[in-house]
Write a structure and sequence with these properties.
Oligomer: single chain
Distance between the termini: 51 Å
Helix content: 55-70%
Largest sheet: none
Number of helices: 12
Mean pLDDT: 78
Structural class: mainly alpha
Shape: globular
């Protein structure tokens, strides 16, 4: 216990394990959502989720404002509608606020330190892992991923994912915009402070972003 509290950093293997936890958990939730909907891959939604998590990883846990420069950095070729969707996700789900508790639990399972600094760093790793999971989910209809009959396992294969990314160019903006995303109908203001709080509809699952966003999609469709 003294050693856990005294060491103020994660080892490289601990940081990788936390990242993989976020990757594995988010991939599972994203795959389940797709299978429940019995739909094809929605590249647009995956891209919005990935950007949301990457921005959240750069925000302090108690942040109330979203710097426009940070939004611009992670949504360089997004439409205005998609940028609004990212802001909505950050407002309603606030992944940067709720990741700390999850990070603490993961660190405890690993036997890693859990000082405030380490928990904060672990939270960043979790969010980056979730962002990577969403980016990989966009590859789930690739022939090499589908060929093995187990797309989720294939998407956990770093070597396979790297090979696909190296050989395949990213989808054009025109390709992405063909998809529809119901929760994009809302119009939060980017100019004002986010006023972020955990959505009252969020069930508090280990994947707050996806779970809360699905509730937003349901409300938008009604």
């Amino acid at each position: 216990m003294i050693q856990q509290m005294g060491r103020g950093y994660m080892t490289a293997s601990e940081a990788v394990a936390v990242f993989r936890h976020g990757l594995n958990d988010e991939l599972g939730v994203a795959a389940a959502a797709r299978y429940d909907a019995q739909s094809s891959v929605d590249h647009r939604t995956s891209r919005i989720f990935a950007a949301t998590y990457r921005i959240a990883a750069r925000l302090a846990p108690d942040a109330d404002d979203l710097p426009v420069a940070l939004l611009d950095e992670h949504t360089p070729d997004f439409s205005e509608q998609d940028r609004r969707a990212v802001v909505l996700m950050l407002k309603s789900c606030a992944p940067h606020r709720v990741t700390g508790k999850i990070a603490h639990n993961v660190l405890r399972e690993l036997g890693a330190p859990f000082s405030d600094r380490v928990v904060s760093d672990a939270g960043v790793q979790l969010l980056l892992g979730r962002a990577e999971a969403q980016a990989r989910m966009a590859l789930s209809d690739h022939p090499e991923v589908v060929a093995g009959g187990d797309p989720v396992s294939a998407l956990l294969d770093d070597t396979l994912v790297t090979r696909i990314r190296t050989a395949t160019s990213a989808p054009s903006r025109g390709d992405v915009s063909e998809n529809t995303t119901p929760f994009l109908m809302t119009k939060p203001s980017i100019a004002r402070p986010m006023g972020m709080a955990v959505s009252p509809t969020c069930p508090g699952r280990s994947c707050p972003g996806c779970a809360c966003a699905r509730a937003t999609v349901v409300r938008a469709q009604r």
